[in-house]
Design a protein that fits this description.
CATH topology: Porin
Protein name: DUF2490 domain-containing protein
Helix content: 10-25%
Number of helices: 2
Signal peptide: 1-24
Number of strands: 11
Largest sheet: 11 strands, mixed, barrel
Shape: globular
Keywords: Signal
InterPro entries: DUF2490 (IPR019619)
Order of helices and strands: HEEEEEEEEEEEH
CATH architecture: Beta Barrel
Radius of gyration: 19 Å
Structural class: mainly beta
Number of domains: 1
Distance between the termini: 43 Å
Strand order of the largest sheet: 1-2-3-4-5-6-7-8-9-10-11
Length: 253
């Protein structure tokens, strides 16, 4: 836990330095609107392990399919290792077609902390190994470039039991995630993007639905000092299936 805390503090310091440097430079900022749909599934396969899957799509920006093996640790802490495949736009092509490919192995640690009876803070640290298809003069190339990316997300969930409708529990979800790039191919965009979201959630047993808004402020990977402010509307579905329980039931029948 102490090592994890040191890593988080270091990443926060780097985020502050990167953000300060970015503010000191002249920026060309454009605005865009998008819709972000996502579905995430967790399949519990044993007491301490689960398989995690998700699919995210933002029109004109990206589609990502992800899978991972989750190890559940004491106190609600979890560690995940997995792989994802992404379809991206092509820099410089002025097209919103998702034609560029990316292979992305990833590692993650998630640490929740109870702040009150109905309030939970979660800290998520994720490491992406990004193998992105190379682009030359807006034309896709067969080779891939590689860089590292660190992602730190802090999120607050506030349950609203006074507004409960039968078995449906409403809650508010506030999150902010900062992403930083590293590697020899990173020349000007150490700061990758910042995501700030506010959503209303509905939970019933093992199913959750979150709808709301996310501001996605991203730096261009191809043009220095160019940024996009994406006003994004979100609809995310989460579900959990306990496959271990089903296997036990079958064994007893």
């Amino acid at each position: 836990m102490k090592k994890f805390t040191r890593i988080v503090l270091l990443l926060l310091s780097l985020c502050f330095i990167s953000g300060t440097a970015a503010q000191a430079q002249r920026k060309e900022v454009s605005a865009a609107h998008a819709a972000w749909e996502a579905v995430s599934g967790t399949f519990r396969i044993s007491r301490n392990h689960a398989v995690y899957t998700d699919l995210h799509h933002v029109g004109g920006l990206f589609t990502v399919a992800r899978i991972g093996l989750v190890r559940h640790l004491p106190h609600g802490v979890s560690a995940t290792a997995g792989y994802s495949f992404a379809w991206l736009t092509v820099p410089g092509s002025d097209s919103d077609a998702l034609e560029r490919h990316e292979h992305r192995p990833w590692l993650q640690a998630l640490v929740p902390a109870k702040l009150g009876q109905h309030l939970t803070l979660s800290t998520r640290l994720r490491y992406d190994m990004r193998f992105k298809q190379r682009v030359k003069q807006a034309v896709l190339q067969p080779k891939y470039d590689f860089n590292h990316r660190l992602r730190l997300q802090e999120s607050l969930r506030l349950n609203l039991p006074s507004l409960k409708l039968g078995e449906v529990l409403p809650y508010l979800f506030l999150s902010e995630e900062v992403m930083l790039n590293f590697g020899e191919n990173i020349t000007h965009n150490t700061f990758d993007q910042n995501r700030l979201g506010l959503m209303l959630g509905l939970e019933r047993q093992s199913i959750r639905l979150q709808v709301g808004y996310m501001n996605l402020f991203a730096q261009s990977a191809s043009v220095q000092n160019r940024y996009t402010n994406n006003y994004t509307y979100t609809a995310w579905l989460f579900y959990t299936l306990d496959l271990q329980k089903k296997e036990k039931q079958r064994a007893t029948q």
